[in-house]
């Protein structure tokens, strides 16, 4: 089965997780923490964001781009990639002027290089090690020297969901052996706890209870 076929079949079977992505106190706190974390990390590596080019791999419906616009990226400098048809349509509707690479990201064919390549919970959807290595290599190839991969994904398995698989920090480091540096923050109060504590997110948000990492991987 090709990587595209694997992802399509997983998403056909999938139950959505309204708690992490919906509009509720837990989801809002998660989103705010991600946005603040991205801003803190990117500010360490770039003085201004307005001239930076950004590519989001596996961009879903594209709405993460609003985070980057809010932080000062220009909309025209944001490019997208996605393989699921209905999400590609959403990106086209939301961002009709923007560059969009349709299909499996490992097949992106361009000579363009980017300052920032963002992936958010894409690698954990890819179960095979060889596909993860292929995608990491493609992202590396698309990155400018001194450019950064911005990484958001989970580091613990979810026993209730066999369609996804953790990517540990050790694996991230092995995927990008040529990196100059890794700058890693632990974020996201784990969903089983976060769902229960809701609006008390910040009160319970201890590092050891966080399920995801936000990382800069510099070329
Ligand atoms: C969990 S969703 C996350 C969507 C978005 N990044 C976000 O943060 O909301 C993972 C996305 O990655 C996409 N994806 C997975 N593997 C891909 C690949 N090889 N090429 C392009 N997109 C891929 C899926 O279609 C899906 O939309």
Task: Summarize the structure in words.
This protein has 219 residues and is of the alpha/beta class. It has a single domain, classed as 3-Layer(aba) Sandwich (Rossmann fold), CATH 3.40.50.150. It is built from 9 helices and 7 strands. The protein has a 7-stranded mixed sheet. Helix 6 links the parallel strand 4 (114-120) and strand 5. The longest helix has 21 residues, at 25-45. The chain starts with a helix and ends with a strand. The structure holds S-adenosylmethionine. Residues 3, 7, 58-60, 64, 81-84, 87, 104-106, 120-122, 125-126, 135 line the site of S-adenosylmethionine.
What are the SSEs and their pairings?
Elements lengths: L2 H11 L4 H4 L3 H21 L8 E4 L7 H7 L6 E5 L2 H10 L5 E3 L11 E7 L8 H13 L1 E12 L14 H7 L5 E9 L1 H7 L3 H4 L5 E9 L1
Parallel strand pairs: 1-2, 1-4, 2-3, 4-5
Antiparallel strand pairs: 5-7, 6-7
The chain binds S-adenosylmethionine.
% residues in beta strands: 15-25%
Could you give me the name of the CATH homologous superfamily? Vaccinia Virus protein VP39
Biggest β-sheet, characterized?
7 strands, mixed
Which bin fits the share of residues in helices? 25-40%
Rounded mean pLDDT is 95
What's the oligomerization state? single chain
CATH fold label: Rossmann fold
**Strand arrangement, major sheet:** 3-2-1-4-5-7-6
**Number of DSSP E strands:** 7
| CATH architecture label | 3-Layer(aba) Sandwich
Give me the number of helical elements: 9
In N-to-C order, the SSE pattern is HHHEHEHEEHEHEHHE
Straight-line distance between termini: 32 Å
């Amino acid at each position: 089965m090709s990587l595209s076929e694997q992802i399509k079949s997983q998403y056909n079977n999938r139950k959505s997780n309204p708690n992490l992505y919906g509009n509720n106190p837990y989801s809002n706190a998660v989103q705010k923490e991600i946005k603040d974390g991205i801003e803190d990390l990117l500010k360490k590596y770039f003085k201004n964001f307005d001239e930076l080019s950004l590519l989001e791999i596996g961009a879903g419906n594209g709405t993460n781009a609003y985070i980057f616009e809010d932080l000062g990226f220009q909309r025209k400098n944001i490019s997208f990639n996605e393989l699921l048809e209905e999400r590609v349509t959403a990106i086209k509707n939301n961002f009709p002027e923007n560059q969009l690479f349709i299909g499996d990201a490992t097949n992106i064919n361009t000579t363009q290089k980017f300052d920032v390549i963002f992936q958010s919970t894409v690698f954990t959807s890819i179960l095979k090690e060889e596909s993860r290595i292929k995608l990491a290599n493609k992202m590396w190839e698309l990155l400018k020297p001194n450019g950064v991969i911005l990484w958001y994904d989970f580091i613990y398995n979810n026993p209730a969901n066999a369609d996804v698989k953790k990517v540990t920090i050790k694996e991230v480091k092995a995927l990008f052996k040529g990196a100059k540096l890794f700058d890693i923050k632990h974020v996201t109060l784990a969903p089983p706890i976060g769902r229960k504590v809701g609006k008390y997110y910040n009160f319970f948000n201890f590092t050891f209870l966080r399920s995801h990492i936000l990382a800069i991987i510099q070329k």
